Structures are given as C-alpha cells and as structure tokens.
Automatic annotation (TrEMBL):
InterPro entries: DUF503, TT1725-like_sf. It comes from the Bacteria. Pfam families: DUF503. This is DUF503 domain-containing protein.
Amino acid sequence: MVLLGYEITFLIYDSYSLKDKRSVVKSITKRMHNKYNISISEVGAQDTLNQAIIGIGIVGNDRVFCHSVFDQVMKEMEENYEIEIHDIQKIEA
C-alpha cells in the first residue's frame, strides 16, 4: 500500500473577496475528488483573500500510479483555473 500526501499553496487570480476564493477552492476540491477519487480539502489560509492551501491524499498499491494521479490533478488545476502554484510539500509513506 502506498500513501501520498501533498500540501499545495497557490495564489488565486481575480479573487477580491472570501466568497470569490471559496467558490474557486470549492470548485477545485469537488471536481478533483469526483474525477480522480482523491481526498482533498482546504487546510489553511482560510481567511486570506487570494491565497489557498489544500491538502491532497492519494492511496494506491503502486507508487508510479499514485504519482501519475497527482501529476494529472496538478495539470488539470493549472489548466482550468486562474491560479499560480507557489509551494508543494510532499509526504510519502
């Protein structure tokens, strides 16, 4: 069994209120969970207008597959949302 955990910090463009930010974060979390069956949640910077921190958990039986899923998630987030990723912290078990 392979467990991968990621903490992703990113900047949200065109976010001028907490309502705008939460709309984007909620859309990202719902879409990625439904499409890739990953655990994903906002884990920090809840009161910052244009910055978000989300946590992603991926469980599988093949390390290459888990890394592949994460790469697909990151690619889709960058392509479909007006965000700029600043930091990615990885935890493997």
